[in-house]
Amino acid sequence: MANERTLSIIKPDAVAGNNIGAIYSRFEEAGLKIVAAKMLHLDDKKAGGFYAEHAERPFYNALVSFMTSGPVVVSVLEGENAIAKHREIMGATNPADAAEGTIRADFASSIDENAVHGSDSAESAAREISYFFNDDEVCARTR
Ligand code: RTP
Ligand code: MG
């Protein structure tokens, strides 16, 4: 298995709910290392560009509106098989379908306000990490 990096966003609902630390604990308990982190309040341009692949979908405007509704915590996670492992501990997009013990099952209220984002492929991870972080903002912990 490869050592990978993936992008995490703790979304506005989870930040507002005081769940940053609890969600970071889930990452660390799963063996994912936090190698970059920042809190941001996204504007329409930054959130809309991030989800540009969904621009034609019916939920796009609501998604951008939600993602700009309050601060988010954007992080880079690193570890063995990090992309799939992160998606696994996040749980399904709709928390009603998310497996017991996953982040979305425990912290998300609906498909529209679902607590976390995680990159879905190596290509997405590379694009999403560089969308939020310069190279010198990611602190290597594996040498
Ligand atoms: P994310 O990108 O946020 O990690 O979520 P995801 O991969 O699990 O889901 P994705 O298909 O990429 O959709 C992005 C976000 O759009 C909202 N969504 N709503 N109403 C709907 O049918 C619907 N489908 C997607 C969700 O909030 C999802 O996280
Ligand atoms: Mg997605």
TrEMBL record:
GO terms for biological process: CTP biosynthetic process; GTP biosynthetic process; UTP biosynthetic process. It is found in: Cytoplasm. Its EC number is 2.7.4.6. GO terms for cellular component: cytoplasm. It is an enzyme of class 2 (transferase). It comes from the Bacteria. Keywords: ATP-binding, Cytoplasm, Kinase, Magnesium, Metal-binding, Nucleotide metabolism, Nucleotide-binding, Phosphoprotein, Transferase. InterPro entries: NDK-like_dom, NDK-like_dom_sf, Nucleoside_diP_kinase. ATP binds at K11, F59, R87, T93, R104, N114. Its main location: cytoplasm. The keyword Membrane does not apply. Gene3D superfamilies: Nucleoside diphosphate kinase-like domain (3.30.70.141). The active site is at H117 (pros-phosphohistidine intermediate). Signal peptide: none annotated. Residues 3-140 form the Nucleoside diphosphate kinase-like domain. GO terms for molecular function: ATP binding; metal ion binding; nucleoside diphosphate kinase activity. (Microbial infection) Catalyzes the phosphorylation of dZDP to dZTP, when the bacterium is infected by a phage that produces the substrate for the synthesis of dZTP (2- amino-2'-deoxyadenosine 5'-triphosphate), which is then used by the phage as a DNA polymerase substrate. Belongs to the NDK family. This is Nucleoside diphosphate kinase. It comes from Psychrobacter halodurans.
